[in-house]
Structure formats: structure tokens, C-alpha cells
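Ticket opened by: R.M.
Priority: normal
Category: complex prediction / small molecule

The reporter submitted a protein together with nicotinamide-adenine-dinucleotide and asked that the result be attached to this ticket for the collaborator who will pick it up next week. Submitted input follows.
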Amino acid sequence: MKRFLVTGGAGFIGSAVVRMLMRNTSHQVLVVDKLTYAGNLDSLKPAANNTRYRFERADVADFERMRSIIQAYSPDVVMHLAAESHVDRSIDGPGEFLQTNVVGTYALLQAALAYWRGLSSERQAAFRFHHISTDEVFGSLGDDGFFHEEYPYQPSSPYSASKAASDHFVRAWHHTYGLPTLITNCSNNYGPYHFPEKLIPLTILNAIEGKPLPVYGKGENVRDWLYVDDHARALILAAEHGRPGEIYAIGGHNERKNIDVVRTICALVDELVPDKTFGPRGRLITYVTDRPGHDLRYAIDASKIERDLGWRPIETFESGLRKTVEWYLANREWWERVRSGGYRGERLGQGVAI
Ligand code: NAD
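Result attached by the on-call engineer:
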């Protein structure tokens, strides 16, 4: 049994990690989350009644607060997922991305380092600071090639630049101070509990409701999609068995053009919710002006984590996407509360002091 401190645990990937830690392990979990618009305690309801689970509302950029939370909880693993994560929002307002992704990671590293230095040598050796990052730090690929652990950094959006900066700080805290860090760079995730501002959940919900399905440019951009539970499993595996200082690239071997993703969702929704009013959902596709600096293609060579940690994705894109559409159809209450803003009303009083 280990003590996991998970920052950003109320977000899309963080909540999947926490639900999996509750379901499949005997580890203790403390979620630390600021509850921005992307944080949703509804996504943690399946974990909330477990005595191994606790929640603390805090900003990772608040060094004093993070220091006292870490000292009081005494974690074996800090899994750092808290971030501003939406590329479009980073283009409209980069400041918040620097504050949380760069300053926040620095503050958390400093708090973790102060705590780690006070541990016994045995606990020091077992401790991990696991930084969760993205393949977007590597920039854009052409028609061929794959990102891997040694690929040069070339971020192109304010979001990916802020994540790249945070990766460099984490690596430096390992090399300079000896903090046992791990960095994982993952491709695009999709799955249940995904905030409907991102391509896949937005398309699913708009297709269900017969609303226009916006596609950037000609929909030619390629992403390598990974089902969120496959990512969560890789993260837990890396946190438990990854070697200090290592970097692991994680991807699903599922390259798809955005337009093909949208068409596949349309076909699935047509099959699962036939509706004579809208006709085939493909008719709702609407091409919109491309995002500035839109990277063409991301794809991951995940052979290191497959070889070293024995990880493999379970879902194919087709099986994962079907599960995802079925989840949104069966969990209308979750996304209706997101769309209405109702999920934000329950925030006060939810924090459990430690
Ligand atoms: P998300 O936006 O769904 O969740 C982010 C969470 O962080 C939210 O709960 C939010 O409330 C919290 N948060 C934001 N600022 C905070 C702060 N200052 N202090 C404490 N909590 C704060 O993001 P996600 O999609 O779950 O991504 C999680 C991590 O994984 C991020 O670091 C992201 O860069 C990385 N990542 C995401 C993807 C993807 O496809 N979504 C792919 C690779 C890597």
C-alpha cells in the first residue's frame, strides 16, 4: 500500500487515475485540485465514499499550501496532473497557462523537494515525483516518423510551450537535486468524463443533440488517440515500477485524421440513436477557420514503455470510441450538469481538511 497525492485529480485524466487506483489497488489517494472550470467533483463520485480517498482544494502554485499538504500527508508518490490543458484557451489567454503549468510545477517541485530531503534514505529511494505531460511538447510531425523519448522539443502553442517548460524543470530537479522524478509524454486521450470543449466529447454531444459539428480547417490534422483508462493504467504502472529520472512516451497506435474521427462518431451515434429528425449526423459537419499554428500530425512510438514496463493499450480506437459514445448516452446527467454549469454549484464545502 502506497500513499498517492494526485494533483488535478478532479480533471479528465486525473479522475480516471483516481477511480482506477480505488478500483484496482489498495493505495491511499489524496486529490489536490483547485477546481477550475475543468475540475468536476462529479467525476470523483465513484471514489468519494472510499475510506482510502481524500480531497483537498488547493492551488499547486501556492508553495506554502503545497508544502504543508505534502508534509501532513507524507506521500510515497506525487502524481502531477494539474494543468491548464486546452490549446484554444491558451491562445486566447496564455497567462493562466504560465501560472499553473510553469509556476505551479515549480512550486510543487520545491515543496516535494523540501519534503523528500526530510525522509529516511529508504523512503527517499522509494519516492516518485511523476510529472504527466503531453506529446505536444515535440511540435508537429510531417507525414511520417514518430515522437519518442529523445525527440527534440519544439512546442508551437502557448499550451505546449508551458508544458515543455515544466518538463525541463522536472528533469532539472532530478539532475540537480536528485529528486526521483518520472516524466510521461502521452498522445491525445479520449473517453468517459471528458469535458465537452474537446473534439471527441463535443462531437458526441452535438451529434446526439443534432447541433453543428465544428471541424477545424479541412479536418486533415492527425492525432494518435489513446483511451483514457489505457493511459491511467500506464501512469500507475510507471509510478509503481518506473526508474527514477526516466521518461516514457505513451501512445495508442491509433492515428486518425480529425475528419475521420468525426465521421466515425456520426456513424456510431446514427447506429445507437437513430433519429429521423436529423437524418445522418454527417450532414451536421461544419468546417470552421483553422486554429492558428495548428500542428499537423502527432504520433507516438511507445516501444520503451511496452518493453520496460510491459504496458499495452487494451482498447482499439473503434472499441474505445464505442464505449465512450455509450457512456455519454448512459450518463446524460453528468454532461447536462457540465453544460448547465450545475457541476460548479456543489464546490463549496466539498474540500475535506487533512
Ligand atoms: P483537465 O483540464 O481535464 O484537468 C485539469 C485539472 O487540473 C482540473 O481538475 C483543474 O481543476 C486542475 N487544475 C488546474 N489548475 C490548477 C491549479 N493551479 N492547482 C490545482 N489544480 C488545478 O486536464 P486533463 O486532460 O485531465 O490533463 C491532465 C494532465 O495530462 C495535464 O497535465 C495535461 O497536460 C496532460 N495531458 C493531457 C492529455 C489529453 O489528451 N487530455 C494528453 C497528454 C497529457
